[in-house]
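Researcher: We plan to redesign the surface later, but first we want a full-length starting point. Tokens attached.
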């Protein structure tokens, strides 16, 4: 059936973007660690800044793909009834924001790991997990719509991404520079 094919295509595209993201994590960790080992701070800055742009492109591509196809997926493709299509559309759009926020979080975590600093990403991930579960429990117990759980997850990962950037910049471990 055509609906099944569209659904599989979207899942495959998002899965490929997620695989690229995780492969990029390993590349960032490796290159930042090599630059750090060679005491080449400028190279580490250039590489992490370039990686940030790559993560941003992956996150935006995935988010835009999910967001653009949300009207199809939230209705005719998955056979969702008209009365539930609004909630399904909101879930897909919140999921798009979650994909972008989670991708940007991964950039900072990979840079920290490349610098052999595992405490900050672990602490931030713990806060994200706590935030997502606490938000989900509150949202479910208060009877709010399901998409608000996804928005809360996007907010927690977005906060994690911001914390990563702030910690890297404030502690001057790896100041960002987008110049060539």
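Model: Full-length starting sequence:
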């Amino acid at each position: 059936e055509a609906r099944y094919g569209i659904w599989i295509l979207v899942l495959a595209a998002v899965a490929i973007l997620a695989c690229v993201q995780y492969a990029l994590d390993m590349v960032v960790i490796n290159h930042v660690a090599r630059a750090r080992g060679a005491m080449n701070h400028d190279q580490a800055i250039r590489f992490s800044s370039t990686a940030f742009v790559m993560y941003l492109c992956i996150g935006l591509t995935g988010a835009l793909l999910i967001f653009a196809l949300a009207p199809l997926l939230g209705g005719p493709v998955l056979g969702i009834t008209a009365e539930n299509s609004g909630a399904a559309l909101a879930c897909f759009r919140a999921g798009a924001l979650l994909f972008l926020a989670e991708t940007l979080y991964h950039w900072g975590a990979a840079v920290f790991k490349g610098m052999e600093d595992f405490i900050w990403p672990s602490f931030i991930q713990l806060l994200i997990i706590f935030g997502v579960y606490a938000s989900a429990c509150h949202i479910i117990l208060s009877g709010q719509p399901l998409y608000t759980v996804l928005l809360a997850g996007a907010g927690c990962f977005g906060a994690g991404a911001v914390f990563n950037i702030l910690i890297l910049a404030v502690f001057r471990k790896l100041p960002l520079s987008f110049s060539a």
